[in-house]
Design brief:
It contains 10 helices and 2 strands; from the N terminus they run H-H-H-E-H-H-H-E-H-H-H-H. It has about 300 residues and is mainly alpha-helical. Strands 1-2 form a two-stranded parallel sheet. It has one domain. It is globular. Helix 1 packs across helix 2 (about 25-55), helix 2 (about 25-55) packs antiparallel against helix 3 and helix 3 packs parallel to helix 6 (about 170-185).
């Protein structure tokens, strides 16, 4: 995060915002700057990619599902907008530790033997490590003593849209994002890779709420996609994972997505629409017969 902070200082904060007497390495100034950067970045990522997903990926026929709430999209957006600033406060405290040099983030690939191999391995390590922690944190948030206080607001949306991706209770949102911040304090990670992964995991979070169930067949047993997560929202006790199905299989919480079996929410909407169409067709034919005198009053 220091790369972003340095760029913001150079191009914006130092020349235009802060007085010259306020040094760039002041911990209070860094905290304020990170708070601004984190909120702006979160809103930009959220509105940009959730909007793209909503208009170009999300199947709007899902909005006809009986469990889709009135004014749901507006409510999802408002919930997210109100939660992000509160989620950013503890998040900034972790970013501040990174900026102050307490993490294992590094600048140069050449700092370590087998630098490029280590860099690629760190990406895979990051994904598997965070997926493991998020699984257990997420599952813990479903415990009956915790759920109603923290995680229940996110499960209001039984048929989520991409705008539900950040609609969390603030503490819930921070806890599920915490593994991303823990990793660079335990394992070395390149700063640019860390930023890239942070952006990608936000996009992934949006994508698993997009209601689009197309997953390449070869990846279906391994990838926890939107089909898995939609069933999680609807059925509660299954598919807690973030990227992979591994820990759901280990923890006994894996469920093959209902949409893969032809009985998902989109299948339900299509069936419901077809039944209405057939009902209208039959009704129209009966009215036509009655108009033509084909029906006579029974004696």
């Amino acid at each position: 995060m220091d790369l972003v902070l340095n760029a913001a200082d150079y191009y914006f904060f130092t020349p235009y915002i802060y007085p010259a007497t306020w040094p760039e390495d002041s911990i209070f100034r860094q905290a304020v700057s990170l708070l601004i950067i984190t909120n702006l970045g979160a809103y930009i990522l959220y509105f940009l990619f959730a909007t793209l997903s909503y208009y170009f990926v999300y199947d709007h026929s899902l909005m006809k599902h009986p469990q889709f709430l009135k004014n749901q999209v507006y409510r999802e957006i408002m919930h997210s907008v109100q939660s992000v600033p509160w989620i950013s406060i503890p998040t900034v405290s972790v970013f501040l530790l990174e900026v102050r040099g307490y993490s294992k983030l590094y600048d140069s690939v050449e700092e370590f033997p087998y630098g490029w191999f280590r860099l690629i391995a760190s990406v895979l390590s990051f994904l598997f490590f965070t997926d493991m922690l998020i699984y257990w944190i997420h599952r813990g948030l479903h415990h009956r003593l915790v759920y109603k206080h923290l995680h229940k607001p996110h499960h209001i949306w039984k048929i989520p849209t991409p705008f539900a991706s950040h609609a969390f209770h603030p503490l819930d949102g921070f806890l599920q994002g915490l593994p991303y911040h823990i990793y660079p304090f335990i394992f070395p990670l390149h700063k640019v890779v860390y930023l890239g992964l942070y952006v990608l995991v936000n996009i992934w979070t949006i994508s698993i709420h997009d209601g689009d169930f197309r997953v390449p067949h070869i990846f279906r047993p391994f990838i926890n996609g939107s089909a898995h997560h939609t069933d999680h929202h609807m059925l509660f006790d299954y598919n807690y994972g973030q990227y992979f199905t591994l820990w759901d299989r280990i923890g006994g919480s894996f469920k093959n997505p209902s949409s893969f079996e032809g009985n998902g929410p989109l299948n339900y909407v299509k069936k419901m629409t077809e039944e209405k169409r057939n009902s209208h067709t039959v009704s129209g034919r009966n009215n036509e017969k009655l108009f033509n005198g084909d029906f006579t009053k029974a004696e």
